[in-house]
Amino acid sequence: MAHAAQVGLQDATSPIMEELITFHDYALMIIFLICFLVLYALFLTLTTKLTNTNISDAQEMETVWTILPAIILVLIALPSLRILYMTDEVNDPSLTIKSIGHQWYWTYEYTDYGGLIFNSYMLPPLFLEPGDLRLLDVDNRVVLPIEAPIRMMITSQDVLHSWAVPTLGLKTDAIPGRLNQTTFTATRPGVYYGQCSEICGANHSFMPIVLELIPLKIFEMGPVFTL
């Protein structure tokens, strides 16, 4: 999870998030290069006497500064489209979870476990135990296995919500009357936090998401849901 004064992104817990972090760093380097070149050109313009008459008719320069931005855009678009298609892939998921957004809590349904359904509310400050996180911990966590493709079916019962877990690279809108889906494969066990990322009313900031990821062998041993 994020911590105070954090500058970079959260550590990746899924292959998709690893790709997103790599693309973020790649695009950032291109932005730094563009800013450096623009500042260097401005510096030369302000400090150099423009006495060269060839500047008024420099077709080669105009060609370069027209083609170069197009090449840069292509170099950014190609890896971006690759990641976009990766996020939409659904390859034979091992488990399907349905998440329903409400004002202001989440309902989860394990469709592969006989329709196991439970609500997940934020823990009030009076119920927090030592080590719990204020405004982030919930009474019922979503327990999932690692190293197994998970499909999340996300919808809403009232207004627009957004199911987002940054460390997994997930952010999918929950829309009333529509069922959206996303997939992920976690690579490390642990407890990971997210929140509703769509302004959905007065208590929008009190809709945390908590995923408890455990090894697949332990998950297969039987129900370990924190109900």
UniProtKB/TrEMBL annotation:
Residues 1-91 form the Cytochrome oxidase subunit II transmembrane region profile domain. Its main location: mitochondrion. GO terms for cellular component: mitochondrial inner membrane. InterPro entries: CcO_II, CcO_II-like_C, CcO_II_C, Copper_CuA, Cupredoxin, Cyt_c_oxidase_su2, Cyt_c_oxidase_su2_TM_dom, Cyt_c_oxidase_su2_TM_sf. Residues 92-225 form the Cytochrome oxidase subunit II copper A binding domain. It catalyses: 4 Fe(II)-[cytochrome c] + O2 + 8 H(+)(in) = 4 Fe(III)-[cytochrome c] + 2 H2O + 4 H(+)(out). CDD domains: CcO_II_C. It is found in: Mitochondrion inner membrane. Binds a copper A center. The chain crosses the membrane at residues 26-44, 64-85. One of its GO terms (molecular function) is oxidoreductase activity. It holds the Pfam family COX2_TM. Its cofactor is Cu cation. It is a multi-pass membrane protein. GO terms for biological process: electron transport chain. Keywords: Copper, Electron transport, Magnesium, Membrane, Metal-binding, Mitochondrion, Mitochondrion inner membrane, Respiratory chain, Translocase, Transmembrane, Transmembrane helix, Transport. It comes from the Eukaryota. Component of the cytochrome c oxidase, the last enzyme in the mitochondrial electron transport chain which drives oxidative phosphorylation. The respiratory chain contains 3 multisubunit complexes succinate dehydrogenase (complex II, CII), ubiquinol-cytochrome c oxidoreductase (cytochrome b-c1 complex, complex III, CIII) and cytochrome c oxidase (complex IV, CIV), that cooperate to transfer electrons derived from NADH and succinate to molecular oxygen, creating an electrochemical gradient over the inner membrane that drives transmembrane transport and the ATP synthase. Belongs to the cytochrome c oxidase subunit 2 family. This is Cytochrome c oxidase subunit 2. It comes from Homo sapiens (Human). The lineage of its organism: Eukaryota, Metazoa, Chordata, Craniata, Vertebrata.
